[in-house]
Automatic annotation (TrEMBL):
GO molecular function, one term: transmembrane transporter binding
Phylogenetic placement of the source organism: Eukaryota, Metazoa, Chordata, Craniata, Vertebrata
Protein's name according to its UniProt entry: Kv channel-interacting protein 1
InterPro entries: EF-hand-dom_pair, EF_Hand_1_Ca_BS, EF_hand_dom, Recoverin
SMART domains, alphabetized: EFh (SM00054)
Pfam families linked: EF-hand_7, EF-hand_8
PROSITE patterns: EF_HAND_1 (PS00018), EF_HAND_2 (PS50222)
The EF-hand domain, residue ranges: 1-36, 37-72, 85-120
Signal peptide: none
One GO biological process term: regulation of potassium ion transmembrane transport
Superkingdom field: Eukaryota
Length: 131
């Protein structure tokens, strides 16, 4: 079920936060994701996770996103996901990203942590040869 993740993705594309995505917004986001700098891609990704747009990612927001991703993956993954997998994923995320341990992840913490992670940096390059 991709409906919840699609909702969050739509909100990330809806830069004016008015319930609609203009073609220009869509093209700008694709441009960033396909051809943007590492910093631009990470800023866009942070914006996706910052559901309430307050400049921070808290555990509730991250849990909502992770649950949406797990729902999209389905119940029949291999290996089978445990029921508390989303919570564990969020805990690992915060251990890595919340540098000052204040319970929220700022854009700066997010960018710094992502740039230190080779897997994340490789994943940002996935679409570089598209188009």
């Amino acid at each position: 079920d991709a409906s919840m993740y699609a909702h969050y993705l739509f909100n990330a594309f809806d830069t004016a936060q008015n319930g609609s995505v203009k073609f220009e917004d869509f093209v700008m986001a694709l441009s960033i994701l396909l051809r943007g700098t590492v910093h631009e891609k990470l800023r866009w990704t942070f914006n996706l996770y910052d559901i309430n747009k307050d400049g921070y990612i808290n555990k509730e927001e991250m849990t909502d996103i992770v649950k949406a991703i797990y729902d999209m993956m389905g119940k029949y993954t291999y290996p089978v996901l445990k029921e508390d997998a989303p919570r564990q994923h969020v805990e690992v995320f915060f251990q890595k990203m919340d540098k000052n341990k204040d319970g929220v992840v700022t854009l700066d913490e997010f960018i710094e942590s992502c740039q230190e992670d080779d897997n994340i940096m490789r994943s940002l390059q996935l679409f570089e040869n598209v188009m």
